[in-house]
Fold each of these.
Amino acid sequence: WPGTRAGAGGVTLGAGDVALLAGTGFVAGAINSAAGGGSLLSFPALLAVGYPALDANVTSTVALCPGYLGGVVGYRPELAGQRLRVVRLGAGMALGSVAGAALLAVTSRGLFRAIVPWLVLLACALLAAQPWVARWLEARGIGQHHHGGAAMVLASAFAGAYGAYFGAALGVLLLGLLGTLVADTLQRLNALKGVLSLIANWVAAAFFIAFAPVHWGAVAALAPSSLLGGRLGVVVARRLPDHVLRAVVVAFGTGVAIYLFVKG
């Protein structure tokens, strides 16, 4: 990894920082299991406690991995009968994730700082558009169960590359792709999205642990609460108004993007 070593960095976390990261991890895990976009919270939280953008990005990916597992466990009933989809599309996600992580590894810190605000805005736009995507998916009804063929495998590879490179709103991107190319109910596609997101993030996390500046103190604060949030996020998502949570995350993410543009 150019100019860095795993675990490097001079940030010392105080009690307030740990509390902030733990609370953020819980909410981010819940958001990821329900819809996607949790990195819009964990990434700026890591920036707020003092980590550089590139370090915050890779640390966020590693720290939120347990949250995806919690979401998958919560969606087990909806995953019944989707083994072949998981194998086919999961392979595409894994290959794309390796490519995305490798691309991030050769991206200079200066270039990454310039790109990050645009990626945050893109993630916000994806998250904001989710209600329209969801209504379109529901209007399709239950169709023949298929896997989208080669087009969906290629699309999953693209999504995996995006997820490893930045990752915010990966779930929203995946749900849109699955809804376009795979016929099934929204809940089952959302469950499938969770498994594919888990694969992408765990592959990227393995790469980052080996080569990237992962900050383990922050991971220790974020990861346990993200697991709990991911497990409960499925239940919460079925009971709370999604539009309120979505609006808060989009507004927060947009504010972060503006801050990054101004800070340069």
Amino acid sequence: MADGDGRRGHAPDLALRGGRVVTGSGVVEATVAVTGERISAVCAPGDDVAAARVLDVGGAYLLPGAIDPHVHFKVFNAMVDDFETAAAGAAHGGVTTMIPFIGGDERMSVGEGIDHFIAEGSARSVVDFAMHCRLRPSPDLIEQIPEAVRRGVTSIKMFQAYRKRGMLFRDDQLLRGMQLAAASGALAMVHAENGDVIDLLEDQLIARGQTGPEHYLASRPHAAEAEAVSRAIRLAELAGCPLYVVHLSTAVGAQEVAAARARGQAVFGETCPQYLLLTDDEMRRQKGLAKIAPPLRWASDAEALWQALARGSVQTVGSDHAPFTVADKAVGERNIFEAGFGMPGIETLAPLVISAALGSARLSLPQVAQVLAENTARIFGLYPRKGIIQAGADADILVVDPAATGTLSSRQLHSRAGYTCFEGTTLTGRITTTLLRGKVLVENGELRQKPGYGRFLPRPPAR
């Protein structure tokens, strides 16, 4: 038997026996053999696999470790999780690889900011990590996109919103960034909301004294997302650049992505558990805690996004983990426009999506493997090392007990934010063991590895 490192004749270090392996192509009963850091074989149930250690996982599903493509934490900002605590939450939630958005401070070049956080992550992360380059709309920084690609960071984030915060890219800047990304073999990413429209509507609401949480959605209407998605798609087409639209929240935004893909354009869409499972009603109940951008929408949007995931017209689910404390968010009770944007979510990402498959059949388990791992790995240049249970891949594996149930509680989570907007949600299925590169990362809720176990994953430019 050849193992994932190319050696022959060596007994595997570990065999996971009696489980049902889930990939994007189906579910099969199999024994998974692990040698070193790699999967060395996926064997038929009756095959005799002599391994140094055998773990009987009878009845469990084996899913590829989740990859979270949308993570924020303290990167010269006021968020309360840092690389270490975000990675710990990821590990406890079955995320074995995360891709945070990285930018330097105002004194740093693009390359210096990336180098800084490669070093920090290598010292402090317990999970593997790649990076996105998060740009500010500075012509000098935009021209440095090739520096990011040379460091193995081949996804470039630009904003179509937040002019008041100095983050909004004009169309000419967006197009130039896409041109450079295309020439460098990188993928452009956009936060797609029409920031100028949003600023006007927000100013009008404030002038009328309509600053309660119930007015927040009116400041960021569905049309603001749909228009920005459409504009970004057309600019990417003009630049000849592949495009990834983050955190789709509306049915109309997802339709724009689906239409572009039907025309043959390289456009990918992401949504998040909050847009699948929560609605604008939470603004009245949870107030500032539920303030995110784009905002929570309607039940009809959530249903359309579930359907888009099932059809494959939206390809990935990310957490958009953006942790602020309860106190930071409480100001939204009197003025929602003063509260910080974002909610914690990296630890609840995989459990919520898995539960939706096991408990409500929103997705099949193969579709879960696709949207939580395989599609993300393919889009971001990590496949086939990550995102799949097959010989030669990293042994990143989730052991899921489908019969277990539980209830989400902030007391059990590891983010410094101290809350979850999914408090009290009933979950079907439980991740009992998580492997990262062949070693037990988390077992029965206990973290087994130390900060620094995680590795940076540089990605080659597209050919």
Amino acid sequence: TTPGTLADGSITAYAFGLDVSEYRGQQTVSHGGAFVGYRAELLRFPTQHFSVAVLCNRADAAPEMLARKVADIFLDDVLTAPDAATTDTPAALPKLSLDEQALQLYTGDFWEPDEAFAAEVRLIDGKLWAVHSPTRRNELRPVAPNQFRMLGVPARVLVDYSVEEGRVVEMRRTINAQPRGVFTPFTRRQVTADELSAYTGDFYSSELDTAYRLFEKDGLLWFELDDEGPQELTAMFDETFENPDYGAFTFQRADDGQVSGFVLQSGRVRNLVFNRR
């Protein structure tokens, strides 16, 4: 249970395989697990000598949240009052009304370099939304100054903005009271069809023995796998493109300036190399 220390001296919440943190004023030690179709969580409150184990046989289950809901009942007399980070019922969230002009400040595109993915925030019908794809989005409800709670997800997700001189300089995400990402604003790169043609071709991973076929159509960049239909790649910045389901594709160029391959970051996958062939 000794927290790890990074090279820069900062202390993490990760302690030799265990997560050492706090929930509603009490120390916790926990660890979650996930495999195909299964989810699990073991949550301990050392001071109270109390533990909760949750085993789920559905991939869309939320064992972290379920474990803490059990603790809410059994440890109600020692836990501090719930706040926006620990409340499950949207109706119980703090009330904070912001007009469209105020909400507009928080919109934009944000990049998280450690997990290599983009967060898109848009104002739609007078509400703030986290847009994951053209068909998936979740409302961000204001609960405190510069703080929002994401609704409709099986976890307690808080989004905090840092604002300086009237503009957002950073966005931080917390999931079930655990820090999960620091995002910085960026402006999406505008790419012409001619520029996209440089990224087309077959790209092969010897590690996976798998090839991606990239092609340009209707001014957009697409890729195909052997057993999958076309998937769009959206330009982010520099040489990085993204697909919300497959991850971030950062292209590399040879000395002659030609695209030679890309590196894929996707969830737990890091630096997976694909070479052009």
Amino acid sequence: MLFNSITFIIFFIVVLFLHNLPLSWRVKKFNLLVASYLFYAAWRPPFVVILWISTLVDWFAGKGIGASQRQAARRAWLLLSLGANFGLLGFFKYGKFLDESFVAALGFFGVRFQPVLPDIILPVGISFYTFQTLSYTIDIYRGKAQPWHSFLDYALYVTFFPQLVAGPIVRATQFLPQCEQPKRASARQMSWGLSLMLLGLFEKIVIADGILARITERVYDQTLRPCFTDAWCGTMSFAAQIFCDFAGYSTCAIGVGLCFGFALPDNFHFPYASIGLSDFWRRWHISLSTWLRDYLYIPLGGSRDGAIRTLRNLTVTMLLGGLWHGASWTFVFWGGLHGMFLVVEYVVTTIVRESDFWLKLPVRIALAFVTYLLCCVAWVFFRAHSFGQAFTLLGSMLHVLPTEGPGVLDRARIAAVLGITIAMLGIHWVMRDSSLEEIANRCPWWLKGLILAGLMIAIMTVSGEDRAFIYFQF
């Protein structure tokens, strides 16, 4: 069920109506749980079973870890949780990828092998809720949390529909305490939640789908080598598209959660105003980057054991972060490229001495623009269908390969990409140290009303096909 569909709007109104009836808090939580299962089942009902398996395994693993006195028993319960979750994730998301990689490796040595590959359907959102449930058992194992006392609360935590299929990835320590007391949105929370939903839908429907998606596809789905202008405009279009698509979903999810009285963590903080790649990953997909930091980078040693191991840990973390995004070597390369950028940044910042020069506004703007360009280079591998296409596009972007055929983007589309990109970079820069809520609080009521009315009119009048959110495939 898509946020940008009439079906969801009806579903949302019905669930919100039930949530505001004079019922007990336990009944309301049960209603939200049932609604969350219906929300997920609307895509493919049988895969609700996987949600149940993940929920039950980690519930009992958490209980087992909390009740065990011996370290060996605690470790066994943790291994059960890790094995079950990564086993399901590995089979459904990486099974076909591993088979194809094995066949390719044999072919490299001249061995022909054609196995019967199973037709595996990827359960939507499995990467998100797998990481979410794992954080629960790992935190209990580390002593940072205690097994929760209510299975209803825990099941709702795993399946809460606003963020179930594409995040933000919520920690148990962030969500479960909110289940203790009855939640009902205040008038302020409701108005802000609906405003966030409207903003998120505008980003998704109008900007990402209505304008940018077709431009990106014209460049990335053609078979001929694009020209310099098309390659750059297509890539900048995708950079803006994936932000508006994913940040739009996260904004909607936070807004929907707020309408029910639940606070979900921010997932984006104006990432295209980042100064350096480490700053970028503090602002982009925050719930994933902090998960990887806390459950992978720091356990590997973080930056505690010298420069060489720090660089190794950065590289490993980003490679696995790339693999999390998709079962393809292009995603792994995308993660590795970001890892390389972080390594270079780490080395440079340890060599270059701090001075007031780096704090000057023109220098900071220049560094932010370079960061954006590096992100665009990496996005090529994220979006391209193959390595061949990715390197062809990069060759065109660097102007080292000749163009094949006429350009596919007319002046209107080029102007649209440049206009949206300049506006996006400018907005991100102006708001990089602020938040939407702070800006909204400083605006007069009539201006906020005009903005929201404009967003609603744009959403209702834009023409285009309904598209799933990009991160549903992960």
